[in-house]
Write a structure and sequence with these properties.
Blueprint lengths: L4 H14 L6 H12 L2 H4 L1 H4 L40 E8 L4 E6 L5 E2 L5 H11 L4 H9 L3 H7 L4 H10 L16 E2 L1 H13 L3 H9 L15 H5 L5 E11 L2 E10 L3 E10 L4 H15 L7
Antiparallel strand pairs: 1-2, 1-7, 3-4, 5-6, 6-7
Helix pairs in contact: 1-2, 5-6, 6-7, 6-10
Length: 296
């Protein structure tokens, strides 16, 4: 049977009272103090619980912020409806980075190239080692007919149509009239793609980027790409002009813009349309295409 501390103390004191000689005075004082001590002190060892275990809560992970989705850019679209409606044209804007056409209008219709065919003359002459870099720069930048006449070979159209893959190319009826060579806008894009990856790009591309304001014959070469693009992007061009094919005046603007886009606008104008007016119309066509040149 369990006894409370108070009863136990009473029993001790009672026993000592019956035989006080059993303890000395000091012991009696100790016993008395123990008897009168608070119960909490007397049974301290029995009532103090063991130290509780400290549990550290797991940290709550901070949720990662939901990433903002990258907005998908809206495709840029343009239209030439209502722009220079009297002008016959073949047009392509090609993105070299994605290797796709951003715009095409009559891309497979052949047009007289005029001086644009000098791109093929340059490739041929450099490939044969028949021209210096100075010759090529003069022929392309200043559109020199003198150099073109010297470097022209009647085999050029067919050779390079096969080499590059130009299904729309038509050699001139008179083999000595190199400017009568016909190509489609898509053919001209293929020529630029070939030039850019050819071992002769380091000669041809700087020559195109050095196009002079006027050609060697005094013709204003700033129509089309140069006037429409201006300083917004770096460009290199090969222009072409001639009169007349099937009663139409030819004015072509072609080139690489911003190192990324090939722009080709081949045009035919009624004989009654003079070169100054035709140049304005070609520039209007290119200006309508310029939103494509800022595509991401």
């Amino acid at each position: 049977m369990a006894l409370c501390a108070g009863a136990l103390a009473a029993m001790v004191v009672t026993g000592l009272a019956e035989d006080p000689s059993a303890l000395g005075g000091a012991d009696m004082v100790s016993v008395a103090a123990a008897a009168t001590a608070p119960i909490s002190q007397t049974v301290k060892s029995a009532t103090v619980p063991p130290p509780s275990m400290v549990v550290t809560p797991e940290p709550v992970p901070t949720p990662e912020p939901t990433p903002t989705p990258t907005p998908i850019p809206t495709p840029v679209t343009v239209s030439l409806d209502g722009v220079a409606p009297s002008v016959s044209r073949g047009v392509v804007v090609h993105d070299l980075r994605s290797d796709r056409d951003l715009f095409a209008e009559r891309p497979d219709q052949p047009f007289p190239t005029a001086s644009v065919v000098k791109l093929l003359i340059a490739l041929d002459a450099l490939d044969r080692g028949a021209a210096s870099a100075h010759d090529i720069t003069r022929m392309l930048a200043a559109s020199s007919d003198t150099v073109a006449n010297r470097l022209w070979r009647t085999a050029i159209p067919r050779r390079w149509a096969i080499e590059i893959g130009l299904p729309g190319l038509r050699p001139p009826a008179d083999p000595n009239q190199w400017g009568d060579t016909r190509m489609t806008a898509r053919d001209v894009v293929a020529v630029y793609q070939y030039v850019l990856r050819s071992p002769h790009a380091d000669v041809i591309v700087p020559a195109l980027e050095a196009a002079t304001p006027t050609g060697e014959d005094g013709f204003d070469q700033t129509f089309g790409i140069p006037d429409a693009v201006g300083d917004a992007h770096r460009w290199g061009v090969k222009q072409g002009w001639a009169c007349c094919y099937d009663g139409r005046r030819v004015l072509n603007t072609t080139g690489v813009v911003g190192g990324r886009y090939v722009v080709v606008v081949l045009t035919g104008h009624g004989r009654a349309t003079g070169y100054p007016r035709a140049a304005v119309l070609v520039t209007e066509l290119v200006a309508a295409l310029t939103p494509l040149l800022a595509a991401p």
